[in-house]
Amino acid sequence: MSNNSILVVGGGFAGITAALEAAEVGHEVYIVETNPYLGGRVAQLNQYFPKLCPPSCGLEIQFQRIKNNPKVKFFTMAEVASVTGGPGAFDVKIKIRPRYVNANCTMCGDCEKAATTSVKSEFDFGIADRKVAYSTHLFAFPQRYVVDAAACAPGEMDAIKAACPYDAIDAGDTEKTLDLQVGAIVWATGWKPYDMEKLTNLGGGKLKNVVSNMQFERLAAPNGPTAGQILRPSDGKAPKRIAFVQCAGSRDENHLSHCSYICCMASLKHVTYIREKNPDAQVTIYYIDLRTPGRYDNFMQKVSADDKLTLVKGKVANIVECECQSPIVTVEDAVTGIKSEEKFDLVVLATGMQPSCAGAKLPVQVPVDEDGFIIGGDDKGVIAAGCAKLPLDVMKTAQTGTGAAMKAIQTVVGR
Amino acid sequence: MSNTVRVQPDLKFVQELQQVGGESLKKCYQCATCSVACPLSPADAPYPRKEMVWAQWGLKDRLLNDIDIWLCHNCGTCSDLCPRGAKPGDLLAALRNMAYRSLAKPAIIGTWMSSSKFFPILFLIPAVIYMFIWSLMAGKLGTAFPLFVTDGHELKVAAEGAIIYGGLFPGDYTIDPIFGAVFAFMAFAFAGGVASMLKSFESMPRTFIVGRGPEPSFLSCLIDTLKNEVAQHSRFTNCGKDEKDTERVKGHLLVFYAFVALMIVTGIVAFGHWFGAWFLQKVMGLEGGIAAFIAWSGHTPMPLWSPVKILANAAALALVIGLTKLTSRRSALDAAKSTSNWYDWYLITVIWGITLTGIGSEIFRLMGQKMLAYPTYYLHLIFVFMLLAYLPWSKLGHVVYRTVALAYARKIGRLPMGAQN
């Protein structure tokens, strides 16, 4: 007897879309998400393409659809431990990490006030700290705090528990495992920003005022550490001169050999953030060639009309900093043939997308390419969607989610 | 579109370049990482990005007249950082190889030096010459492996005696005239090569540098180059920053100064022999005092405690250490980043040949192993001939070409970005 239900691994835009499409035609769907929230990378953005909406815009509708559909069940802080069986009859073991916070939580924030230890915030890509009792962002779904027990100081958990007026802290929470029987699996584990510390010649992770494009999103986001003000990390001043370094680690055999598709557009989008928040700032984008596919070219035309924006063909290959911690980039303008050093207040590295599962041993048998993107597996009942498959924008990610839902349904129906 | 420039690509030239070591040049997508990565390239029209596009387009004239190929000291940082594995460092090395091949005349030696398949010809020329001398002298002395005793100023073959290379290969009539001729041939070839190189540099457009005083003379630039780039390896030291680059500079300095020391030793021997023993003692008839000292100081074989011999042995040791560093670095090169070509291996092989046969000649002579000593010395002569006679067409040609190019670059103010000197 084949199983009609579908497992979706990854609760980002691709996974949510696939899950909802399948659930809304009657399939039972389980979403397994490793973060404490759904929404994936989109949740971390300030605005996203194609219409430069804030993430709450698209995600709010999706979360409503999830809440209103009893066919969708989701597990956060959960991972797939093992998969056995085949198309139509998979046995999946899910591991759920302890959250230490139960459904009584009202997001009042008293636990956060009681917590004393701070660690780097993963959600903000390390540019800000979070407490050990935390909520990643205002719009987090599910609306429930997390306690990072491993990082708690001795006795801190008790203080946090004591501070909660709703008895929502479950200090004795433990790791749970769960067995699921499903007929198909959608693999939508998404992407991670390429580790900028590997870009040693660009001072990635070393120079304070050299940030990644995703860190820049957090700087511009209203729910970010600077409440949406673009300020440079070293001294909190508004940068007057900002540079973008395209292909930072992408299209590069030494790092990611593929083009990450959206970084050129992301930098152009960032120019619009700067224009809105720091109207007088001078911006330079250093590129190999600007890749603005399809209709995105209209956006490029619009943004490049900005007279305080300079586009320079030439890849930055060296960044150092001056005594005032301003980054100094060295670049050859390949059109004029002049090599120069330019000082900026802030440099943004347009780092690319690396598949989240790159280098990891997957619990499912699927072929991957040299960069770690999944390039098959449909015939084995494992369908890749979103950026686990190839670098995409949100719109195309949603399309692959829908496509994956279709294939998953075809896998479980008619056996 | 009246002023459209039509690029006339020389496809054959592109293929030739790919064959002599620039095989990855088509991978370049002109990101300009290389020009920034290069610690020696100037701010204006930096290399090697422009050379990559010239090579892709087959712009032969530009590349053949390009001074920048000599300003590059091949640390390989550009190739290490190249996102495409296009190996710009290898392209510049390939262009230098083309220059070695074509700058000096006769061109046939350039052809022979360009591929390992001609190596036997290059080896056989000196091998035949010295074998002829060896057999001639063997006939005269009555043995091919003679031992000598000294009788006044003359050497006599004896059953119990010493190995004296000058007895079998007499300096006055065989070694010195041949190497004299070889040296003259080499100097003549270099003169022609340098002249055509300078002419090609003159043909290129120049940058007008604002605020620069009158252009210095070539001679003063050459002196500055010898003082800085040559004697102190000032550019070479700045070429690449990691461990393997510093090891390369150390290795090169050791080999360079070993050769300088051996040149001094050779100079003392020649001076002692031709000025002291021949001119002062034989022609002028002077005896004793200074004349005897000069003649003695150049007399071979030298005792091991002679300062000249100590210098020679120290140089041999420096050669072994330096060559070991250079060879191990070259064999450890990551083939995905940079590759070695025949010009690299020819030079390393010949210098190792000179070093090992030189040390071997001394050791076997001291051990009294005549059956080993004379063949080793014979090989030593062959390798020295191969280094000197073909020098302008070998990678060692850079000793002249790069020096001239660096001096010319000083003259026109083409210095690394940020460099004052």
General description of the model:
The complex is a heterodimer of chains A (415) and B (421). Chain A has 415 residues and is of the alpha/beta class. In chain A, 21% of the residues lie in helices and 25% in strands. Chain A has eight helices and 22 strands. In chain A, the strands form seven sheets. Chain A has a five-stranded parallel sheet with strand order 3-2-1-11-22, covered by helices on one side. In chain A, strand 1, helix 1 and strand 2 form a beta-alpha-beta unit. The N and C termini of chain A lie close together (8 Å). Chain B has 421 residues and is mainly α. Chain B has two domains: 100 residues, Fumarate Reductase Iron-sulfur Protein, Chain B, domain 2 (Orthogonal Bundle), CATH 1.10.1060; 224 residues. Helices cover 65% and strands 2% of the residues of chain B. Chain B has a two-stranded antiparallel sheet. Chain B is elongated. At the A-B interface, strand 18 and strand 19 of A face helix 2 of B.
What is the largest interface, and how many residues per chain? A-B, 24 and 25 residues
Strand content of chain A is 25-35%
Residues in β-strands, percent of chain B: under 5%
Radius of gyration of chain A: 22 Å
Distance between the termini of chain B: 44 Å
Parts with pLDDT < 50 across at least 5 consecutive residues of chain B: none
Distinct helical segment count of chain A: 8
Oligomer: heterodimer
Number of strands of chain B: 2
CATH class annotation of the largest domain in chain A: Alpha Beta
Architecture of the largest domain in chain A in CATH?
3-Layer(bba) Sandwich
Major beta sheet of chain B, specifics? 2 strands, antiparallel
Helices and strands of chain A, in order, run as: EHEHEEEHEEEEHEEEEHEHEHEEEEEEEH
Class by alpha and beta content of chain B: mainly alpha
How far the N terminus sits from the C terminus of chain A, by CA atoms, comes to: 8 Å
Number of domains of chain A: 3
CATH topology of the largest domain in chain A: FAD/NAD(P)-binding domain
Low-confidence stretches of chain A: none
Order of helices and strands of chain B: HHHHHHHHHEEHHHHHHHHHH
**Rough outline of chain A:** globular
